[in-house]
Design goal:
Blueprint (H helix, E strand, L loop, with lengths): L5 H18 L6 E21 L4 E6 L5 E4 L8 E8 L6 E10 L4 E3 L7 E6 L8 E17 L14 H5 L11 H11 L5 H15 L1 E2 L7 H7 L1 E2 L1 H14 L4 E8 L7 E9 L3 E5 L1 H9 L16 E2 L3 E6 L29 E6 L1 E14 L6
Parallel strand pairs: 9-10
Antiparallel strand pairs: 1-8, 1-17, 2-3, 2-16, 4-7, 4-16, 5-8, 6-7, 8-14, 11-12, 11-15, 12-13
Helix pairs in contact: 3-6, 4-6, 4-7
Length: 371
């Protein structure tokens, strides 16, 4: 019988112990395949003219304008601009602003999501028929996100203000009895939050048809089982929150060779791991139309993983605008009629009209073929 050297036995024991420990130790997320991205975003308010109105209008650049009667009538034209400032995240690092022209009056960060808002007051610059143009030039390093999660390492949720905040009912993500019941049906007897979220993700991929909606909110999109990326995200967040899983929306824009449009996806929170990405919209695309997105056609690639072909502008829904106009009671509640998805910018204006408001994203560096 051949004798095994003691050094080989020792190495074998160490490897075995290490593997056993690894199975019970959370793995940190991988942020891999970094790429340099440089963008120039131009916001144009075209043909701005003064006029007399008794309404104030909120126009989120990616959504339809919403008008309402002013609480206190303003006699002067008012035009405020809010832009979501791209900031540091684990998959969006080394953010550097090369220029912002004209410079914002303020940069504000107050909400729990850590959003940063650039603010301009153009009320004194309204000229009949004139344009207002803002150009922002910045660069950052984009990473692909690749979580490796062991469900056994997911800890229990603590009763914290943050967890309560991300499991609350709010405008467009109402936790109605129907939503709670559907969430229970989807997760069944599963108790593990990671596997519960995976079941909800799979349900969204398999049951929601991609249709651009005429109106927003899960009370409309969930019964009809249709929606765009924004509605997918609202539905996923609501079903997770109904199960007690903290969840939120991530708002941004594609910035790669394949796609260059607005996009919305999700994040859900797991103890011991942090915020986990989930993009059921792209999961469904991989399922129905293989070959046009990352993930080698796997619908579950976008559950726990994320490509590097996008940038983040804000997180959350009903983003609170600061400074809030003193002549209109926006308030800071969830039903404040603030931007639903603050993907790039929003204007608040009264006693003036704007012919067109548009955003142009120019990829100076990073126009890569990623998949």
């Amino acid at each position: 019988m051949k004798t095994i050297p003691k050094t080989v036995i020792l190495i074998s024991l160490l490897l075995t112990a290490g593997c056993a420990a690894w199975r019970h130790k959370p793995m940190n997320p991988y942020f891999i395949n970094p790429r340099e991205v440089e963008l120039k975003i131009t916001y144009t308010l075209q043909n701005v003219e003064a006029c007399d109105t008794n309404t104030v209008t909120l126009y989120e650049f990616s959504e339809e304008p919403v008008s309402r009667v002013m609480q206190k009538k303003s006699t002067k034209p008012i035009l405020l601009l809010y832009i979501a400032r791209q900031r540091e995240y684990p998959n969006q690092q080394n953010v550097e602003y090369i220029s912002i022209d004209p410079a914002p009056r303020q940069i504000i960060s107050k909400d729990i999501d850590g959003n940063e808002i650039e603010f301009w007051d153009f009320s004194d610059r309204i000229q009949n028929g004139g344009d207002i143009v803002i150009t922002r030039h910045f660069r950052f390093k984009a990473y692909e996100t690749a979580f490796r999660i062991d469900p056994a390492n997911v800890d229990v949720y603590e009763d914290t203000p943050e967890n309560r905040y991300y499991t609350r009912t709010q405008q467009f993500i109402e936790l109605t009895p129907e939503v709670i019941q559907l969430s229970r049906e989807i997760i069944g007897k599963e108790k593990n939050p990671y596997l519960q979220a995976r079941a909800i993700y799979q349900w969204c991929v398999e049951n929601i048809e991609y249709v651009y909606p005429p109106d927003r909110g899960i009370q409309r999109s969930l019964p009809r089982r249709t929606g765009d990326c924004g509605e997918y995200s609202l539905i996923f967040a609501a079903l997770c929150r109904a199960a007690g899983i903290p969840a939120r929306v991530a708002n941004g824009h594609w910035c790669c060779k394949a796609k260059q449009n607005y996009h919305v996806w999700n994040e859900f929170y797991l103890p011991n791991y942090g915020w986990i990405p989930a993009d059921a919209t792209d999961g469904r695309i991989n399922k129905l139309t293989p070959g046009i997105l990352a993930g080698n056609d796997d619908p579950f690639y976008f559950f726990g993983n994320l490509d590097s072909g996008r940038f983040i502008s804000s997180k959350g829904t009903s983003i609170q605008l600061y400074p809030s106009p003193p002549w209109h009671e926006w308030g800071l509640a969830d039903t404040n009629n603030n931007p639903i998805f603050f993907q790039t910018a929003a204007t608040v204006y009264a006693n003036c009209k704007i012919a067109q408001q548009r955003t142009k994203v120019e990829i100076i560096k990073g126009d890569d073929i990623l998949w």
